Amino acid sequence: MYRTHEGRTAVVTGAARGLGQAICLALAERGADVAGIDIADLGETGDLVRAAGGNWLAVRADVSVAADVATALGEVMGRFGRCDILVNNAGIYGYVAWDDLDWETWRRFHQVNLDSQFFMCKAFVPGMKAHGWGRIVNLTSDSVAVPIPGTVAYKTTKMAIIGFTRGLAADLAPHGITVNAASPSLTRTPGVIERMGEERLRQIAERQMIRKVAEPQDFVGLVLFLTGEDAHFVTGQTLFADGGLAFA
Fold first, then answer.
1. Threshold 0.85, pTM exceeds
2. Side-chain half-sphere of 176: how many Cα atoms within 13 Å?
3. Which residue among 67, 134, 226, 245 is least packed, with the fewest CB closer than 10 Å?
4. Residues in contact with 207: Cβ distance below 8 Å, sequence separation at least 6, in sequence order
């Protein structure tokens, strides 16, 4: 395994399982120190990262709450002293028909999916600027390019993340920091299986140009590229690793 991220410290939100867990493990295998943030238990992810020889920090925090993010920043700085890579993976999803969509649900989608990325970037960007180097990857969704009923709240936040990414990229480019948005296809993760089942995964796979059910490992390569040295000239972009389901 190439140690492409040696000497870097990565912070990954939504790290307890699924895509976040796979991203943590991949970054550790490439040599990065990794801090995982989640409201859920991070024990399994920590075991995997340590088994891969990585340095690991588990932070229990709700990234949709500014005070929790401030605490997380203190823990990461106390352990590693820096953050070079930020992967904003935490988010919620689900189908809510327009007639059933109330303000509380609308706000919850925005708080978890969008506000969390604002809070995390506000907290960790100053350290990146001080070192003159940084990589930020914000997870969006290919649903922004696919007509799916019942996704008004979810899709609005994921579209807003693209705008947030583009705006932030312009502000941070002079400081050696790249900011990009990345999207997986609907992926076989514990959360997806619990909420949607295998049949829904197979249906999505049949609509992709590459007709296989997406696994977390199918997405992490994009994250590794965007967080490494080779992506130094890529910023403000939205990239899909979704088997050709959507073109952007």
1. yes
2. 13
3. 67
4. 245
Angle at 160 between CA 58 and CA 169, to 5 degrees: 75
8-63: pLDDT as tens digits: 999 999 999 999 999 999 999 999 999 999 999 999 999 999 999 999 999 999 99
Tokens 């400081």 belong to 175
Which is the catalytic residue, given 2, 93, 95, 154?
Answer: 154
Task: Tell me the angle at which helices 116-131 and 152-172 cross, rounded to the nearest 10 degrees.
Answer: 20
The HSE-up count of residue 29 (CA atoms within 13 Å, CB side) is 14
CATH 3.40.50.720 fits 9-184+223-236, yes or no: yes
Please, which residues bridge with residue 33 across strands? 9
- Report DSSP letters for 57-115, one per residue: EEEE--TTSHHHHHHHHHHHHHHTS---EEEE---------GGG--HHHHHHHHIIIII
* 154 classed as catalytic: yes
> Cα angle at 30 between 84 and 35, to 5 degrees?
45
User: Strand, coil or helix: what is 180?
Assistant: strand
Task: Dump strand ranges (E) for the chain.
Answer: 9-13, 33-38, 56-60, 85-88, 134-139, 177-184, 238-241
Per-residue pLDDT at 1 exceeds 70: no
Two structure tokens written together for 120: 């995390």
For the chain, the structural domain boundaries read: 9-184+223-236
Instruction: Give me the torsion for CA of 228, 231, 237, 241, rounded to 10°.
Output: -60
